[in-house]
């Protein structure tokens, strides 16, 4: 194993900082997104909770809040990872490749920077969700933040891997659209597993879906009564979350380190 020098760590922090600093240009957008999210969960969330039949011992509105927040983290992480496609057109990727920074350091920095930026972007919405749910255990809040960050890192890694492997804007758009549609819809973000078990293909797809694991894990933390509805035991959910983060982060680092070349989509 190669030794990691202090210069590598400094370079890594600079790459992460570069990704995170882009948030400064999005301050107004974050404020608008937060406002819209609050309106959505208050107006639409309340309305749909009145329409959905209640589940014994479970408040569907709280169930909905944690589900819709999971989809928010997912969509923000997707957008952050997809920025690398635009960077090809702007020449930023080639500029990065010309820097005196190791490929592995650059790759790890892009994954960590993108996931940190996504995590910070969603924090205002997370604070609002916690205000609505009012958790009584600070430790669970910390655990949930770790789970959210790991999920974001996995999604950013997934998008970077797909974008840099396909190397085609049109093909990437189509493939990401299909992945997005399948992952969000074939999950338990809006319906508990026992309900969708009535359609077995849907049910088994949701069990293998990391979005289900994250949303259900957050619910088990903050809604103990949800444990009887969860798709997997907490250990299984944690395994999915960690596996997503480690697996796709590694793939993204491998693609950037070994497959990425200057000169655009080549």
UniProtKB/TrEMBL annotation:
Claim: NAD is one of the keywords in the record: no
Span of the signal peptide: none
Top-rank taxon, per record: Archaea
GO molecular function: ABC-type transporter activity
GO cellular component terms given for this protein: ATP-binding cassette (ABC) transporter complex
Transmembrane segments: 30-51, 63-82, 111-133, 139-166, 178-197, 238-256
Keywords, comma-separated and alphabetical: Membrane, Transmembrane, Transmembrane helix
The protein's name in its UniProt record: ABC-2 type transporter
């Amino acid at each position: 194993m190669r030794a990691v020098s202090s210069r590598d760590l400094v370079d890594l922090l600079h790459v992460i900082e570069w990704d995170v600093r882009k948030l400064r240009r999005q301050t107004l957008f974050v404020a608008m997104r937060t406002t819209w999210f609050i309106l959505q969960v208050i107006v639409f969330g309340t309305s749909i909770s009145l329409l959905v039949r209640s589940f014994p011992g479970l408040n569907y509105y709280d169930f909905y809040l944690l589900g819709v927040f999971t989809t928010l983290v997912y969509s923000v992480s997707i957008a952050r990872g997809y920025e690398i496609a635009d960077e090809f057109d702007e020449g930023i990727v080639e500029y990065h490749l010309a820097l005196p920074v190791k490929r592995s350091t650059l790759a790890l920095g892009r994954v960590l920077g993108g996931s940190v930026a996504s995590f910070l972007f969603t924090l205002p919405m997370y604070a609002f969700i916690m205000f609505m749910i009012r958790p009584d255990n600070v430790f669970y809040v910390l655990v949930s933040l770790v789970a959210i960050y790991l999920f974001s890192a996995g999604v950013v890694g997934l998008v970077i891997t797909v974008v840099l492997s396909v190397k085609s804007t049109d093909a990437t758009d189509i493939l990401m659209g299909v992945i997005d549609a399948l992952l969000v819809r074939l999950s338990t973000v809006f319906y508990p597993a026992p309900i969708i078990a009535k359609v077995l293909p849907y049910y088994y797809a949701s069990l293998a879906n990391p979005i289900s694991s994250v949303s259900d894990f957050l619910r088990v933390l903050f809604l103990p009564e949800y444990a009887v509805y969860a798709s997997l035991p907490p250990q299984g959910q944690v395994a999915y979350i960690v596996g997503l983060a480690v697996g796709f982060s590694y793939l993204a680092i491998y693609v950037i380190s070994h497959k990425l070349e200057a000169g655009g989509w080549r």
